[in-house]
Amino acid sequence: MTESQQPLTPVVNFWNKYSKQISLFALLIIALVAGWYSYQQFYQLPREKKAIEAIFRAEEYFRKDSIALALNGDGQNLGFLKVIEKYSGTQTSNLACFYAGSCFLKIGDNAKVISYLEKFSTSSKITQARAYKLLGDAYADSGKNDQALEYYKKAAAHFEEDEVNSPEYLFMAAYFADQVLKNTSEATSLYEQIRKKYPRSQQSFDAEKNLARLGVYTSND
């Protein structure tokens, strides 16, 4: 064996020893990828398309504030609850959880709000932040104040670049800590965050007034 061939010897020995296992592993990976692709293309994608068609009427009822029809359907078209059940695992079923949670909040069923919204997740930051805010509302209405505050703060922090909704959520957290929890230090911290992060917002102006009321800030500061 020449000098140039010597470095290859360990590789050749390794291949001779483990070639069967490596080949089986490679075949397994190929089978898994092929199975996943087939599942997505021939099962999940058609279900997703059907789910999108199925949820259309429920969304219309939701926009019209017809909560019972949006949740339960009209006898011919599915409501959000059936979409969730029938098309579980699809993105549309996930979206239906958001709608269902929103509906239940409107009729005061906070346990179901929490159940459905905690199942929901999305890459849309503005929608996810909204879901956290609604969870805060549901926990607040249930008297679970610590959880409510955490979700209001979570809503505010999730998409801080949103200068319309985030200052509103942050103010809700501050005001909740102030008026409901009577936690002056937490409220002060949150009010000051609003002033720092969103100085041109209406909520910043309101935060200044509340800080003045708490004796932490005055117009001469």
Shape: flat
Major sheet: none
Structural class: mainly alpha
Number of E-state strands: 0
Distance between the termini: 85 Å
Count of separate DSSP helical elements: 10
What is the H/E order?
HHHHHHHHHH
Strand content: under 5%
- Spans of at least 5 consecutive residues with low confidence: none
Whole-number average pLDDT?
A: 89
Helical residues, percent: over 70%
Cα gyration radius (Å): 27 Å
Describe this structure in words.
With 221 residues, the chain is mainly α. Helices cover 74% and strands 0% of the residues. It contains ten helices and no strands. The protein has helices spanning 9-63, 67-72, 80-86, 91-106, 110-117, 125-141, 145-158, 165-179, 184-197, 202-213. Helix 4 (91-106) runs antiparallel to helix 5, helix 8 (165-179) packs antiparallel against helix 9 and helix 8 (165-179) runs parallel beside helix 10. The longest helix is centred in the first third of the chain and has 55 residues, at 9-63. The mean pLDDT is 89.
Give me a quick take on this structure.
With 221 residues, the chain is mainly α. The protein has helices at residues 9-63, 67-72, 80-86, 91-106, 110-117, 125-141, 145-158, 165-179, 184-197, 202-213.
Question: Key terms for this structure?
Answer:
single chain, 221 residues, mainly alpha, 10 helices, 0% strand
Question: What is the topological layout?
Answer:
Elements (H helix, E strand, L loop, with lengths): L8 H55 L3 H6 L7 H7 L4 H16 L3 H8 L7 H17 L3 H14 L6 H15 L4 H14 L4 H12 L8
Helix pairs in contact: 1-4, 3-4, 4-5, 4-6, 5-6, 6-7, 7-8, 8-9, 8-10, 9-10
